[in-house]
Amino acid sequence: MKKIQISQINFPPPDFKNSKVTKEKIVLKWLIDWINHSISTSDVKYGDFLPEKSKLAKYLGVSIGTIQNAIRQAEDMGYFESRQSVGTAIKDPHNQNKIFEKTFSKKDEATILIKKYIIDSKLKLENALPSTKELSKLLNIGENTIRLALEVLLREGIIEQITQSGAKVIRIYKKSFNKENCEKIQQRTNLAKITVQKMKEYIIKNFNVGDKILPNEEFAKLFNVSIRTVNEAAKILNEQNIILSRRGSYGTIYINDPRKIKKQKEREEKSLFMSKPQNNILQESYLYSWEKTLEALKKYIIQNHSAGDKIPSMKELATILNVSTNTIRHAISILCDEGYLITQRGKYGGVYILEMPQKDSETFRWLALNPTAINIDVK
Prior knowledge:
Layout: H1 23-40, H2 53-60, H3 64-76, E1 80-83, E2 87-90, H4 106-120, H5 132-139, H6 143-155, E3 159-163, E4 169-173, H7 191-206, H8 216-223, H9 227-239, E5 243-245, E6 252-254, H10 265-272, E7 273-274, H11 280-285, H12 289-304, H13 314-321, H14 325-337, E8 341-344, E9 350-353, E10 365-366
């Protein structure tokens, strides 16, 4: 395997002038034509890696996004195979053997889950699918991943996209498919799950409860996987209460030995969940800046407004609380999600108070300090 350099491409760039198709489609055709030509002339071999997408985009005079979309479509057609942190390799579309060890991507998972949803919901041909946002909630997968999966189903002809007035997009179930493939979701290997196990073993061997562990970037290098995979694995370990990830310099803390976690539920509640400390210095130390702003905003609303009032603009609140408008926006978003505030558009638009926030919140927060700092025994 070798990496192809831009200077080694002996194939004329595509002509985008006076074309009725999108740049993405033109680049897709060019990629396939270039690969077929270069393979026939032995300029490249199957298994060789494409140049960096940024350099390829500059060579063709298009955006990186256009290159990414074209490569993704060519990959679905069997011309490429990609692996994060490794690259995109040229593949024989007529050979089913994989260049890399097969892992189950989130796009693959979303594609199969949508197919499974169609079966389980007993959708009939010409029935409309839920929106991207609704599918995201139903399947517990990010909207961007759902969009990528829908693109795959569009190319497979399983669904059809209809654009109506007002630019509203409706996708309908258009063609039947092999339902047996939907059951393979349970049989595929998810790289994140493998990484979870590796991280558990490494943490148990090298750290004690209460220690600050390696950053995700270092775990990615250690296990030779992408940072995205480590982030997914870390999320699972957080949900299992084995580690606690905090932003910035707080880092990630090893909070529970997975071997003992089932036996220590009562002890965990006492040692790891705390209501707000009475010590103001300690309280400040474990709050994010937006959490401090959230508390300050609640206090401001309680002291200066009543239910039904329109609160000041984000710019005014940022000045009052001496924080950025982005931090205010995040705090307002949380209060909207909690049902305290509501945003309105139009002539009488703004942010209104639906219900007054509670003065003394008993919400439990994760403590991301060394437990010894507050004399908590976690052994």
